Every structure is written in C-alpha cells, then in structure tokens.
Amino acid sequence: MFTVVIHALLLAFGLILPLGVQNVFVFNQGANQRMFKQALPVVVTASVCDTILIIVAVLGVSAVVAAFSFFQTLIFGIGFLFLAYMGFVTWKSEPSKTSLKEGMTVKAQILFAASVSLLNPHALMDIIGVIGTNSLLYSGKEKWIFTLVTISVSWIWFLFLAFAGKVIGKMDTNGKIMIWVNKVSACMIWGVALYMAKSILFH
Q: Based on the structure, what is the number of domains in the chain?
C-alpha cells in the first residue's frame, strides 16, 4: 500500500508541477485578488475539474482514447488553437494597467478555470494518458487509494499556487513582476502549442 501512495504522489506532482495554462491562471488570480479567499473559486473549480478527469481516466476512458488515434489528433488540433490563443491573451495581460487590486469576478473565475482545465489537451493527455494508464496497474482498494492520492495532490497544489500568487502580488505593488511572469508563461504556452502542432504533423 505504501508503494501505491508513493507512486501516486510522484506521478501526480511530476505532472502538475510544470508551469502550464491552468497553473498560470490559478497563480495570477491569487496575485490579482484583494483577499486570498476571493481566489478560492478558481482553486475549487480547477481542483474539481481535475478530480472529474482523474476519476473518468481511472474508470477506463484512457483505454478508449488510446485505441482510436483520431481522438488524439482531434484533441491536439483543438489544443493547438486553444493554447495559441491563451498564449496571446497571457502575453498581452498587463497587471500594472488594470491594478493588482482588481481580480476576476466569481463567475469569470469559474468559467475561465473550467475552460483552461477541460479544454487544455496537454492536461487531458497527461491525466487520461498517464494517470489513467498507470491506474491499470492496480485494482480494487489499491486503485482507489491511487486515485484519491492523485486527487489530493491536485487540491493541495492549487491552494499552494494561489497562496504563492497572493504573496508575490503583495510584494509586486506596481505589477512589474507579474508582467514578466505573464511574458514567460506565454512563451511556455506557445511552446506547448508548437509541440502539439508537431505531434499532429509527424504523427
């Protein structure tokens, strides 16, 4: 059982730690909201979306996706367009002009967090292709422990990310740090988009 927990921890952290669209958005909302609790809608939405995807992956959708290659091509195609747009939006975002004291409304946080969680093919392929596939190594109680640990990592990480954003936001009163964070994030997002384009062309 201990091996299952360690496996799930290492796998979940390995997938969720890299800076991606979802992480960037949660971090930015932590930085932009006046109070930490005002960033909780994005934390809860991102965590719930990941929870749903992980459960669906463990229940066997990963095997279906793996069996039909055109699903992967479709997901990567949609993902390229989505990430290319998200990179543009992130690059153009300038907190110093909009004030770090004004964050998104609850509705906007929920809708945007859901979109970057459920329409991000990189995350979908990670969860369905990696977590789903690895869950096939277990059955019964071990499989559900594996699932619960990966879900727990997601919730803890997003809480930490929003809190870290809040700390940086307090330090960055004029928005200069966040502008550079956005620029770097945009480049990374575009990098993932190009990787997906390559996957489609040379599949």
A: 1
Q: How far apart are CA 18 and CA 150, in angstroms?
A: 16
Distance CA 59, CA 61 (A): 6
pLDDT digits (tens, 9 = 90+) for 116-130: 888 776 677 777 767
d(CA 62, CA 2): 25
Which backbone phi and psi does 94 adopt, to 5 degrees? -130, 95
pLDDT per position as a tens digit, 2-39: 888 988 888 887 777 665 678 888 988 888 788 888 89
On whether the pTM is more than 0.85, the answer is: no
Expressed as residue numbers, the domain containing 58 is: 2-201
DSSP state of 36: G
26 neighbors 165 (Cβ within 8 angstroms): yes
CB 83 within 8 A of CB 91: no
**124 CA to centre of own chain:** 9
Q: Which two tokens stand for residue 130?
A: 């990696």
